[in-house]
Structures are given as C-alpha cells and as structure tokens.
Amino acid sequence: MSSPHAVLQGSFDLPVLFDLGATFAFGLTGALAGIKRGYDIVGVLALALVTGLGGALIRDGLFLVQGPTPLLTNPRYIQASLAAVACGVLFGHRIHHFSRVIAVIDALGLGAYAAFGVQKSLLAGLAPPAAILVGLVNAVGGGVLRDLITREEPLVFKPGQFYLLTALAGAVTFLFCSVTMELSANRSAIIAVVLTFVFRMLTITLNWRTAPVSSGSIFENDEEPPNRR
Fold first, then answer.
1. Is residue 229 part of a domain?
2. What are phi and psi of 111, to 5 degrees?
3. Are 109 and 22 in contact (CB under 8 A)?
4. Residue 11: partners with Cβ closer than 8 Å, 6 or more residues away
5. How is 153-191 classified by DSSP, letter by letter?
6. Picking from 16-20, 117-121, 225-229, which range would have the lowest pLDDT averaged per residue?
7. Residues 41-99: pLDDT tens digits?
8. What is the SS3 assignment for 200?
9. Residue 3 lies in a domain
C-alpha cells in the first residue's frame, strides 16, 4: 500500500499576503492580551510573537524538524508580529471596531493552517492521525502557548464556542479529500477552508457552544448515565 503522502496530487501554498495577514491577526490577539495584563513592551512583544508564530514553530521545530523554518528565514513574519504590537499599543482602545474583520481573518486562517499542517505532515511521512494532530497544533498552538505563558487555562480546553473542533473539521476534511477522494491538494484545501470558515462563522453567529463533561455519574455511583446512546 502506498504511503498517504504518495497519493497527494500536487501541493498548495498559503498566499503570502494571506499568511502575513493571519500572522498579524493572531499576533494582535497576543499583544492585546499582554496590554490587558499590564505587561511592558518586552512582554507584549513576546506574547505577539508566540501567538502569531507559535503553532507553526511547534510544527516545524518539534514535529517535522526539517531545517530552519521559513518563519525565521523570512523576516516579514517577525515584521508582521511587530506591526501587530504597534497596532495594539496605538489603537488597542479602538480594536473593538475591527472585531468582525479579525474574526473573519481568524476563521479563514483556522482552516488554512489546519490543512497546511496536515499537508506538510503527510509529505514528511507522518501517519494520518499524527498529521491531523499536527494540523490542529498548527492552527491553535499559538493561542495555547499564549494562555500557558500568561498562566491561564487554555481557552481551547474550556467550554465555549467551537474553535478547536472547527480546526479539527478542517484538518479531517483536507485529509479525506486529498487522500481518500484523491482530489488535488489545492482543491482539497479550498474545500477545507470554505467548510471551516462557514462552520466557524455559524458558531459565532448562532453562539454554538460546547458543554462541560459531567463526571458525577462516573465517580459517585455505578449507574449508567441517562440517555446513553
């Protein structure tokens, strides 16, 4: 049987302007988190860099280890994070006016980074489950690092609007379309990004939320939970 990456039809690359825009948007959330906590410029810059680049750095440095990552060889990614810090410092009190724009960029980036992480993992020879894991880390890793550094529980672990589940949908969709359906990588990526974007925007609009898992029936008695299916 051929390996998963052998059946990928071509490959897709994130448009540079889109990639830099998503890096800026993610970095801005990190910068605003630092400003909110009263950090100095060093702390704000560190959070912006971690949030904007963290997921991809984990992907390339920890999981794939394929030499210097383009995030560090191309200065524009760090420049985008610096621009996010400047924007946060200068216009932080007005950022709420652009919340919808940031949400749209975030929704697009979520699916694109999930699909891109899966593709790079398959091309590196990782098994499909591992490729999905790397795709998720690529999409949400920066936010998790931001929360850990600021001693917050990672938001993706707590009940709230579908976020990690949305990224998971994008990663699985890309894997299914590219490996199972054998569609081209570009077409698979477009399908994954569109599905993820629609799913995320519906989540925001309709306020779809996850619920806490109840452990009472597990630890307090041996009865089966109600409505088990």
1. no
2. -70, -40
3. yes
4. 119, 123, 185
5. --GGGSSSBSSHHHHHHHHHHHHIIIIIS--BHHHHHHH
6. 225-229
7. 999 999 999 999 999 999 988 888 877 788 888 899 999 999 999 998 888 777 777 77
8. helix
9. no
Q: Which of 12-16, 39-43, 132-136 has the lowest mean pLDDT?
A: 12-16
- Tens of pLDDT, residue by residue over 187-197, are 999 999 999 99
Residue for token pair 């020879």: 125
Please give the angle made by the CA atoms of 102, 89 and 77, to the nearest 5 degrees. 60
| Of the candidates 112, 126, 122, the residue with the CA atom closest to the CA atom of residue 8 | 122
The domain of 98 spans 15-210
Structure tokens at 115: 């699909």
Q: Is residue 9 part of a domain?
A: no
Total number of domains in the chain = 1
User: What distance lies between CA 39 and its chain's CA centroid?
Assistant: 24
8, part of any domain: no
Instruction: List, in sequence order, every residue forming a beta bridge with 209; answer none if it has no partner.
Output: 161
- The structure tokens listed for 65 are 């280890």
Q: Round to whole Å and give the CA distance between 71 and 69.
A: 5
Give the residue among 201, 26, 165, 160 at the shortest CA–CA distance from 173. 165
In this prediction the pTM is 0.82
Say if residue 153 is exposed, middle or buried (CB neighbours under 10 Å; 0-12, 13-18, 19+): exposed
Measured distance CA(103)–CA(119) in Å, rounded: 24
Distance CA 89, CA 155 (A): 24
